[in-house]
Amino acid sequence: MEGIIDLSIIIPVYNVERYLVKCLDSIYAIRNINFEVIIVNDGSTDSSSAIIQHYCSLFPQKTIVINKENGGLSSARNAGLKEAQGSYIAFIDSDDFIDSDKIVSVLTNAKEMQLDIIFGDYIYCDEKSCILLTSKRYSMNHMKAYQVYNGLEYWENALNKDQISVEACFQLYNLSFLRKYNLLFKEGIYHEDFLFSYYCIFYAKKVMYVPIAYYYYRQRPGSIMSSAELHYMKQLHKLKIINELLNFKKNHLLELYSWDTVLLATYFDVVRRGKIKNDSLCFSLNECKKITIISRLKKILLPFLGLFAKNVNI
Q: Locate the Glycosyltransferase 2-like domain: which residues (predicted)?
């Protein structure tokens, strides 16, 4: 591929033959920038491999194919990151698709402002329809569109909301920034985006939100967790992530009260969903600066206090 690559698009693929063509069509329709498509075939056993080879033959100058044994989403994304050469990175799940013009608009903003991370809006799709889900959480609490913040400002402004998007697919990342801080996805866990996004935002010096919906997120039939065992495992992994983030916060002497709020809320959500007890983690969470954040926690904690007062002392 000749010249500077503006955007590396990393697509992990595992048995998505039904959706892969639409995904790839939307990506190769991109115009007016120099981009590369890194397709990581994570051990697919359906016709996904044949579809990948077809597009590789159509666009050989733009396509890199990595064939590997199945290792999960984090492993596939990390494999793509190692090969990437673009100024910016986009992670696109192979059952989703994009607006080829709007992603260029988002990228243009990122390059002009030399951002570490840029956030966009996304459109939620099921089998029947697509609905725009605007990221109003970013424009609330002084997170204004097209205004540059550093990562810590982002936390203190955006995490005051009940919910924040941590999905890596809804952002573009500066590749030099990711490599400077060795930011990769932790392998072997669920909720990998959660941990990756927290670390990225912590290290970021320049982040910005743009009200441009370029990503179509698809909720597939059967993709929602179906087994009790898998559900329990995911909740355990979320607890491990919370523990790691608490240690990270302590080691970096962070005074991010909004971070405390989110971690506490996440813990209660885990307990509510999985009925999991973890006394050591509970103790760590209770070490958060309760007096400062308790007023913010009321809205989150009140529904749970009656259920969990015996397990957690707050």
A: 8-129
Q: What percent of the chain has pLDDT over 70?
A: 62
Distances (CA, A) of 233 to 136, 153, 229: 32, 33, 6
Would you state the structure tokens that stand for residue 128, as one six-digit string?
């029947």
Please, are residues 274 and 311 in contact by the beta-carbon 8 Å criterion?
A: no
Of 34, 215, 199, which is closest to residue 123 (Cα–Cα)?
215
Look at the block and give the residue holding tokens 């039904």. Answer: 18
- Name residue 28's amino acid: Y
Domains of the chain (ranges plus CATH)?
Answer: 7-218 (3.90.550.10), 228-308 (no CATH)
CA–CA dist 283, 298 (Å, integer): 19
Query: Could you give phi then psi for residue 89, rounded to 5 degrees?
Result: -120, 135
Taking the mean position of all CA atoms in its chain, how far away is CA 146?
Answer: 20
Nearest-CA neighbor of 172 among 94, 86, 97?
Answer: 86
Distances (CA, A) of 299 to 118, 262, 271, 295, 296: 29, 12, 17, 8, 7
Bridge-partner residues for 272, per DSSP? none
Report the C-alpha gap between 253 and 184 in whole angstroms: 22
Apex 203 CA angle, 240 and 196, nearest 5: 35
Q: pTM for this structure?
A: 0.78
Evaluate whether 18 touches 46 at the Cβ level (below 8 Å): no
pLDDT digits (tens, 9 = 90+) for 61-70: 999 999 999 9
For 126-193, list the strands marked E by DSSP.
Answer: 130-133, 171-174
